[in-house]
Specification:
52% helix; binds magnesium ion; alpha/beta; Rossmann fold; EC 2.7.1.71; binds adenosine-5'-triphosphate; 7 helices; binds (3R,4S,5R)-3,4,5-trihydroxycyclohex-1-ENE-1-carboxylic acid; 177 residues; ATP-binding; Shikimate_kinase_CS; magnesium; kinase; 5 strands
Length: 177
């Protein structure tokens, strides 16, 4: 048990803009340290038996955000998870509180162009409309990611593999993994 354990929870949350590499990082660290990893978008999909895209289309973003918060709440009973979060998780102030309450939050602070390149093959993303919209969204979200972050990692110009090793080291140093 480390001093970072809060309310019996010791999860590590990864936040950042779309395509930053949150899911890849959680998966890589999970394999390296034999820790379970989950993704909030997949948790919502599993709970609802639907896809994020369909949920946005059928019920709108507001309902999706409620479901996202419910999925986060659902992690209270679990231990030691690596959690990759939906890119918009910080839009809901309660989610920032929940992450602080349940563990440690890492912000992957990346370059917008890298994000856009990394998602270019995804054609079903309700969060992506245009490069201009993405730039505005990142400007709006950066302070929210910073508010959520216990640790900010500058991932500009860094390969997915190097990000995994860097973050592994930073978490090990803090006794969080
Ligand atoms: N090792 C890698 N080398 C190059 N590209 C990769 C690598 N791993 C992932 N990618 C690409 O980068 C994209 C984004 O990575 P990832 O899904 O981990 O980001 P994310 O932050 O979880 O994105 P999302 O906003 O979709 O949840 C992947 O869809 C994939 O196309
Ligand atoms: O950035 C966002 O607003 C989103 C990101 C995705 O992970 C999904 O959570 C959904 O498409 C919304
Ligand atoms: Mg992801």
């Amino acid at each position: 048990m480390t001093s970072a354990v809060k309310h019996g929870c010791d999860h590590v949350f990864f936040v950042g803009f779309l395509g930053a590499g949150k899911s890849t990082l959680a998966r890589n660290l999970g394999r390296m340290f034999h820790r379970r990893f989950v993704d909030t978008d997949r948790l919502v999909e599993r709970r609802c038996g639907s896809t994020v895209t369909k949920l946005f289309e059928e019920f709108g973003e507001e309902r999706f955000r409620e479901l996202e918060t419910a999925a986060l709440e659902g992690l209270r009973g679990e231990r030691s998870l690596l959690v990759s979060c939906g890119g918009g998780i910080v839009e809901t102030p309660r989610n920032i509180e929940l992450m602080h309450d349940m563990g440690f939050c890492v912000y992957l602070d990346g370059d917008l162009d890298d994000s856009l390149r990394q998602i270019r093959r995804s054609d079903t993303r309700p969060d992506f409309r245009s490069a201009e919209h993405a730039a505005r969204l990142l400007e709006h979200r950066r302070p929210l990611y910073e508010q959520a972050a216990d640790l900010t990692v500058d991932i500009r110009g860094t390969s997915f593999t190097d990000v995994s090793y860097t973050v592994a080291e930073l978490l090990l140093e803090r006794g969080l993994i």
